[in-house]
Task: structure prediction
Amino acid sequence: MTDSRRDGVITYVGVAHPWMCDTMGHMNVRHYMAMFDDASFQLLGRLTGVEKDRSLGWADVRHEIEYRHETPAGTLITIRSQVTRIGRTSVTYRHVMAGSLEGELHAEATVTSVRFDLVARKSLAVDADLRQRAERLLLDTGSSP
Result:
């Protein structure tokens, strides 16, 4: 069993299909973003729970992606995610994309999402329940195993 504070939670499992690849035979960057976006929905869903109020949501304000290894067609992919920072109105988190079988690191993304009132079109404070759920997934930077 993995430690979600250290390893993150699984937020995406998929495959690099041939139609996702560019003329060099590797997954095109647009598909990395789509996979990271799907992983974000999974992670933010864990934080908000079942969202009953449809006027609340999230607005991504920053994405940073580092490509570590080419991803050829047929690569099985797993993304693990963890919260790295909880702000007053935002949550920053990291996605790590690796090969499902070999564990080779393919890419990492750091994303900041702001809690958002979709009607008023403004940011909201992260409420206590959401903050508590985010803290459970907060990256443990301590040295203990």
Q: What stands out?
A: Residues 89 and 125 are 4 Å apart (CA to CA). The chain has three helices and six strands.
